[in-house]
Amino acid sequence: MSTEYKLPYVLREPCEDNGHMYEAEVPILPGCRAWGDTPEEALDYLESVAAAFIEIYEEEGRPLPDSIAAAGEFLVAV
Predict the structure, then answer these.
(1) Tell me, what's the pLDDT at 66?
(2) What element of type H or E holds 44?
(3) Using only C-alpha atoms, what is the Rg of the chain?
(4) Long-range contacts of 40-44 (CB under 8 A, 24+ apart)
(5) DSSP secondary-structure letter at 6?
(6) How high is the pLDDT of residue 22?
(7) In this structure, what CATH number is given to the domain that contains residue 30?
(8) Does any domain span residue 78?
(9) Does residue 77 fall inside a structural domain?
(10) What is the residue-level pLDDT of the chain in tens, covering all 78 positions?
(11) What is the pTM of this model?
């Protein structure tokens, strides 16, 4: 069973500093960044990079940052 995480991200417009590409970043995972020709491409790559980051944290037994909240749902009977 996999766990879903809600991760805040920042998406930056193309400029000289990021190679004229869109840059997406998950600030709570240091160094977790991806680039793409379109916003969608940058976010798709970022999703893969973030998943790899979390897998490495788990494999190494390192705790995830406290600010990562596990996503979920529950039923309420009224």
Answers:
(1) 78
(2) helix 39-59
(3) 15
(4) 42/11, 43/9, 43/11
(5) E
(6) 97
(7) 3.30.160.250
(8) no
(9) no
(10) 678 888 889 999 999 988 999 999 999 888 999 999 999 999 999 999 999 999 998 899 998 887 776 655 666 666
(11) 0.80
What's the pLDDT score for residue 21?
Answer: 97
Q: What is the predicted pLDDT for the residue at 78?
A: 65
Give the separation between CA 76 and CA 33, rounded to whole angstroms. Answer: 38
Interacting residues of 63 by C-beta distance below 8 A, sequence separation 6+:
57
Number of domains in the chain: 1
Distance separating alpha carbons of residues 13 and 63, to the nearest angstrom: 32
Question: For residue 39, is it within any domain?
Answer: yes
- Give the domain range for residue 40: 5-70
Q: Is 15 part of a structural domain of the chain? A: yes
How many residues are listed for the chain in this entry? 78
Burial of 21 from C-beta contacts in 10 A (0-12 / 13-18 / 19+)? middle
The answer to whether 62 and 54 have CB atoms below 8 angstroms apart is: no
